[in-house]
Amino acid sequence: MMPVVSPAPRPLLDLSAEELSSWMATQGYKTGHTLPVLRSVYGAGQVTAPPKDRLPAGLMDHVATAFPSTAATLAQRQVSEDGTCKLLLRLPDGRTVETVLMPDYRPERAAGCISSQVGCAMGCDFCATTQTGFERNLTSGEIIEQFLHLRREAAAAGRTLRTIVFMGMGEPMLNLRNVLPAVRRMADPQLGALGWRQVTVSTVGIVPGIEELTETSLGVHLAVSLHAPDDATRTALLPMGRRFPVQDILAAADRYQEKSGRITTIQYCLLEGVNDSLNQARDLASLMKDRRMHINLLRYNPTGLSLKGRTYAPSSMEQTEAFLTTLRQCGAVAHLRRARGPDIDAACGQLRKREGAEKEKV
Hints:
two-stranded antiparallel sheet, single chain, alpha/beta
């Protein structure tokens, strides 16, 4: 007979509180110790008991031995002059994923940008991530690992990680079965303690995903990457626009906003000669009429030749300011987000793409 091979233990960060509680019961421990154990991991990023939690002697050592405490290693780290820190994490299967720490204008705070997938299948023509294709979804534990890496980076810089945005690699709405558990554990006041209002989930406009998020009643913020006010321009930039028209996406966002009470953010990356005309600004403002949504204008960080063989350029500051002014004159609430990490591979997917290209040369 062939010997029975037990499956490798899952990383501790992949376990829900219920799963760890069940394991502890089989090991003869009180299930009431579950949350203190997890607090030690989510709070400090390592398996050590917080002073306030009294645990049986040897429990933490047993947990550390029974479960891998981490599954990702740091492959590369880049730090910009503006303090933005980009990490490339290598997963056990050799694949890599990016996560970014961004300093807040308040010196004691920082924000984190987290990935939800290895690569991306959305095909957005101006994005570096899509150029390497989609490989797989991240597990909830791999998502949480990014959170813990960023928390440690923030602490090392004398800051506190206060907010998380799912705006890294991948489309979060296509991996909600792992994104939602990760959000719950990061935000839960008894675990990661980040807070529900401190989490933003972004999407290119996957309507069923927005509807599923609405039904969870988690109370996180929603961001929609619109990038064009009309379906023709948007579809040329984001192929998913063929399936979900602008009006359908905004209607789904309306429903989310009505139920959650959270104001939706409209992400709009300005591309020279593509989506930055003043007429397009007026059309965008018209879409926001009677909607309490905020437009977040982004300056493009060039990523080289696109999938369609086009090289995109950021709008000039003069055109950017004119676009912003037009939006405001038309009654829209709009802001220009300052560029992050222009001197490093800060755009989504750039560092991972660079590492892959360097490997091919070797």
